[in-house]
Amino acid sequence: MRAAPTPGTTASVRSTASVRPTAAPRPAAPERRAAPGLPDPQPQSQSQPQPAGRSQRLAGVATMIGSGLSTQTGAAIGSLAFPVLGPVGVVAVRQYVAAVVLLAVARPRLRSFTWWQWRPVLLLALVFGTMNLSLYSAIDRIGLGLAVTLEFLGPLAIALTAARRRVDVCAAIVAAAGVVTLMRPQPSTDYAGMALGLLAAACWASYILLNRTVGQRVPGAQGSAAASGLSALMFLPVGLDLVLRHPPTAEAVGYAVAAGVLASAVPYLADMFTLRRVPAQAFGLFMSVNPVLAAVVGLLGLGQHLGWTEWASIGAIVAANSLSIATRRT
Fold first, then answer.
1. pTM surpassing 0.85?
2. pLDDT digit string (tens) for 319-328?
3. Are 317 and 311 in contact (CB under 8 A)?
4. pLDDT tens digits, residue range 152-191?
5. Nearest of 131, 23, 137 to residue 88 by alpha carbon
6. Which residue in 133, 135, 18 sits closest to 67, CA to CA?
7. Separation CA 326–CA 215 (nearest Å)
């Protein structure tokens, strides 16, 4: 969870974020996020990692593992505040944290933006907030593992629809089988939660395309930082309502802030470190494992048990993405 995005992240975010791993044609920015919802911290001009030695690559791999675990752990901790803040309140706090980090790092020159630059930034801000809100609402209803898996269909769909190889067709069939199995009708199926997960996937796919446009029109990470700040402003009324009408407990706020740090700030900084030390293909391949990490964290941290069919579905979706990336020529 790029969450997750933040979500990675995760991502992911995970933020990712929180970023998406599966389809990043040059010269666009890498399509991955540290956590679900986390803008791509890597400028387009730096999409290729610098040559690195064995020790640096090992450090990069260790950082990727830490980033993914941080993303999903942040989402799990954030869910602990749902009874008090609700998914909307937790997302609001997470957006505030992400905005503070990105604005401090990128320092966008907002006054120099033209309307041609502002248009995709505004759309990215809207998608950014909707993506995180739909993901966290899905986590509240169907659990961390299934929500992150459904959200992961966004970048997977972008990758597979742009491909023309037989292996990608096979990967798409495997992923589709996993989705059908995951969403099969059952007495306990939460269709609203599934729909929220698919909405998060659609937002993640939109995020990839918009982030590519923003990266082409706005230098560096300024566009992503501006979008993050605007998204935080959109959630400002939510924060004021919580403080004035339903004062939250210090514990709940602490959980939400921890989610913002672990699922947004940590993956963002970790991914900037990682992308300089490992190839983009290896990065994307590892990000494929985030749904599995989310399911494991949900099991160990939240006691969210999945049946063997759910595990098989998650495995099929992860395998489809891994197959597509591993067989891609660089």
1. no
2. 887 777 777 6
3. no
4. 888 778 777 766 677 777 877 887 888 888 777 777 778 8
5. 137
6. 18
7. 26
